[in-house]
Input
Amino acid sequence: METITKEKQWESIQYICDEEGNTTGVIVPIELWEEIASERETAYLLSSQAMKERLLKAKNRQDGIRFEVVREKLGI
Output
């Protein structure tokens, strides 16, 4: 699957209009939509001080099991 540049993604947005010419919707490339959705989710999570602290704590956590070890233990 070919990855298109961000500029091309924005250029390929298609607008849907009603009979009067009013824009009623858009068709967005999936890669751009996923990026927008991810940014919205991050903004939502960081809007709560408690969630922001939990996320930063989890990000800075050093203990845990390496992904490869987990896969081996699960047999996947």
